[in-house]
Amino acid sequence: MALMVVDGRLGPALAAAAERAEAALDRLLPSGDDAQSRLYEAMRYACLGGGKRLRAFLVIQSAALFHVAPRAADRVAASVEMLHAYSLVHDDLPAMDNDDLRRGKPSCHKAFDEATAILAGDALQARAFEVLAEPDTHPDPAVRCELVASLGQAAGARGMAGGQMIDLLAEAHKLTEAEVTRLQMLKTARLMTWCCEAGAILGKAPAPLRHALAGYGRDLGLAFQIADDILDELGTLEEIGKTPKKDAAAGKATLVSLLGLERARAQARMLAEQAVGHLDPFGPPADTLRDLVGFVVTRRT
């Protein structure tokens, strides 16, 4: 498989998904001039007008495989973007990764203040689950309950938050290759896996197809994180929209630091091949998801 976009379908699909997610976020995020208006402003600052919206794209594309209503897919896509934004707001705090830039603009705690950023992250996480639980997301309450429970697992102590805990500990403890892979599985790949599964949950897909999408999301997420680490090593602030070489400065081990650039790139390519293989049961309708794999491992932003 040539890991590249072989035609022009991926760019328009990414742009369309980003536009749909942005519109849903604008509609679903709170606004107003009441006593909480500063909190609303910080939530919207953290969520709107930036990012590649890859997680939203995965939700929308996986849902399309099962002919899910676009409005339902858009709500779930917005929900996961809220949860992702919360994680970035908290990751950037001085107590965590201590980064002043995010998506090419001041981090939320720099644009507002630390207390407001913490509350904005808290409120974004809460709103993400609230949206999933609302009847407009799906008429079947069992589907809504499964979305809520599975996202909680992906985001909690055995998922994204657990991965961040390992990441913080990595500043004082040199991780092995296996430990770094586990960190990346929890912190990055677990949420991407959920994004792919979410479409199958919305579509009440059979277990084999759901498992295939989960495998795709897992391997894509791991490849994405290796590419991110390579960008952190080689990219500029203008390209990546945040401070480069942060992990190296903090003494954190990554697969790039452990394996070297070429072996890390080879690992990303291997994971990309595996990700594409998981899509075999879906045939041509999954071609845009296949194209995404090439973009993820060769991106410069």
What does this protein structure show overall?
It is globular, with a radius of gyration of 18 Å. It has helices at residues 10-28, 37-47, 54-64, 70-91, 108-111, 114-133, 141-155, 160-169, 177-202, 207-234, 237-240, 246-250, 255-259, 261-277, 287-298; strands spanning 101-102, 105-106. Strands 1-2 form a two-stranded antiparallel sheet. The protein is 69% helix and 1% strand. A hairpin with a 2-residue loop joins strand 1 (101-102) and strand 2 (105-106). It has 301 residues and is mainly α. The protein is built from 15 helices and 2 strands.
The CATH homologous superfamily name equals: Farnesyl Diphosphate Synthase
What fraction strand? under 5%
What is the H-and-E element order? HHHHEEHHHHHHHHHHH
Question: At CATH's second level, what is the architecture?
Answer: Orthogonal Bundle
The CATH topology assignment is Farnesyl Diphosphate Synthase
* Helix segment tally: 15
What is the terminal separation in angstroms? 23 Å
Strand order of the largest sheet: 1-2
The biggest beta sheet, please?
2 strands, antiparallel
Radius of gyration: 18 Å
Cα shape: globular
How many structural domains can be distinguished in the coordinates?
A: 1
Instruction: Work out the number of β strands.
Output: 2
Q: Structural class from helices and strands? A: mainly alpha
Mean pLDDT value = 91
Helix content: 55-70%
pLDDT < 50 stretches: 1-7
CATH level 1 class label: Mainly Alpha
Summarize this structure as a short list of keywords or feature phrases.
about 300 residues, mainly alpha, Farnesyl Diphosphate Synthase, two-stranded antiparallel ribbon, 15 helices, 2 strands, globular, disordered N terminus
